[in-house]
Amino acid sequence: MADVLFVLMRWLHISSVATLIGGMIFGRAVMSQAAEGLSPDSRESFMDKAAGLYRPLVFTAMGCLLISGTYNILTNLGHTPLYHMLLGIKFLLVMHVFAVAILITRPHNKRRARMMAGAAFSGLAIIAISAYLRHIF
């Protein structure tokens, strides 16, 4: 039974990261570019509607990441100082992504595209750090 819970939490964590970071990359690379051909009023309306539809996914993904991440930390104890240092850096980047995810889903955000780009880079750095942490564990 413990193995099933471990696999479920791992799947929940990875799928939540894919939803959050993938949504940011898609929003910046595709949605922002698609909106460029619209009039300024239509562009803002289009992006606000897309952000509103993304909001429930953001909060669901953030909640699932907090639950599965807490489970992962509590079930994998006894790491090196290097592991804990990188985990701390990862947490700081996660806070950046979470804050941006909340801000980009608010209406009338003129800096949405730029914010998504920064959060996407932070998200990709989180994934790289996670891969390294998995390797050294």
Descriptive notes:
Helix content is 87%, strand content 0%. The model has no long low-confidence stretch (mean pLDDT 94). By secondary structure, the protein is mostly helical. The chain has helices at residues 2-35, 40-75, 81-104, 112-136.
Low-pLDDT parts are none
The largest pleated sheet is described as: none
Number of helices: 4
Listing every helix as H and every strand as E from the N terminus to the C terminus, the arrangement reads HHHH
Strand percent estimate: under 5%
What is the CA-CA span between the terminal residues? 23 Å
Mean pLDDT: 94
Structural class: mainly alpha
Write the layout of secondary structure elements.
Elements lengths: L1 H34 L4 H36 L5 H24 L7 H25 L1
Helix pairs in contact: 1-2, 1-4, 2-3, 3-4
Labels describing this entry:
single chain, 137 residues, mainly alpha, 87% helix, elongated
Give a quick summary of the entry:
The protein has helices at 2-35, 40-75, 81-104, 112-136.
